[in-house]
Amino acid sequence: MPTDPTIHPYEILTTPTGERVQVDAAMTPIVRELWRLHYSTSACCEDVGEATAGVREKRATPLGYGGGPFIEYHRGWALLKIPIPDAMRLVAALAETLEFGARVRHPWRQGSWRMNVPLGPDGFNDSVLLHFPKEQIPELARLLHNW
Fold first, then answer.
1. Could you give the strand order of the β-sheet that contains 127-133, starting from the edge strand earlier in sequence?
2. Which of 5, 11, 41, 110 could potentially form a cystine with 58 if both were Cys, beta carbons 3.0 to 4.6 Å apart?
3. pTM here?
4. Distance of CA 126 to the CA centre of its chain
5. How far from each other are the two terminal CA atoms of the chain, in whole angstroms?
6. Spatial separation of the C-alpha atoms in residues 39 and 51, rounded to whole Å
7. Residues 74, 52: contact at Cβ < 8 Å?
8. Half-sphere exposure of 134 (CA within 13 A, CB side)
9. pLDDT tens digits for 61-90?
């Protein structure tokens, strides 16, 4: 299986379980704070559309997804992949904040988050994909740091 090329600058972090992982540099403050607050993460990206376009340009074999419409739809959106129980706890906590309450409570408004659980042949995935405008990365990191 081919390894996708790195698109965004990254840092190597050590997870709470001791594993060394590559995390997009812009997302490292959020990931560190989530781990400190005992949330699990399994993936993140600082700009999904940009990353997908970059991988498509650099990869020798085509991706099975990520054509032009996918790239344009996801351009400017950050991603956190979190287990369902942790995502529910995080979104419930964010819903109580002035900064993020409306963003997580009211879908499809300017600045609102997109949240979904992928469905596969065996049922729902065990993780939630939280997409939010990448401009919110610093604000989310500050809020989490202050918790």
1. 43-45, 77-83, 127-133, 114-116
2. 5
3. 0.90
4. 15
5. 40
6. 24
7. yes
8. 17
9. 767 667 788 888 899 999 999 999 999 999
Cβ-proximal residues to 108 (8 Å cutoff; 6+ apart), any chain = none
1: pLDDT confidence band, cut at 50, 70 and 90?
very low
How long is the chain?
Answer: 147
pLDDT in tens, 11-35: 999 999 999 999 999 999 999 999 9
Which two tokens mark 18?
């001791």
Q: Which residues contact 40 (CB under 8 A, 6 or more apart)?
A: 82, 83, 86
In the block, tokens 């065996």 appear at 122
Token pair 């949240």 is found at: 115
Q: How many whole angstroms separate alpha carbon 56 and alpha carbon 62?
A: 7
Read off φ and ψ for residue 73, nearest 5 degrees.
-65, -35
Query: Residue 7: how many CB atoms within 10 A of its CB?
Result: 18
User: Which of 129, 70, 47, 134 has its CA nearest to residue 62?
Assistant: 70
Q: What sign results for the dihedral spanned by CA atoms 58, 62, 63, 68?
A: positive
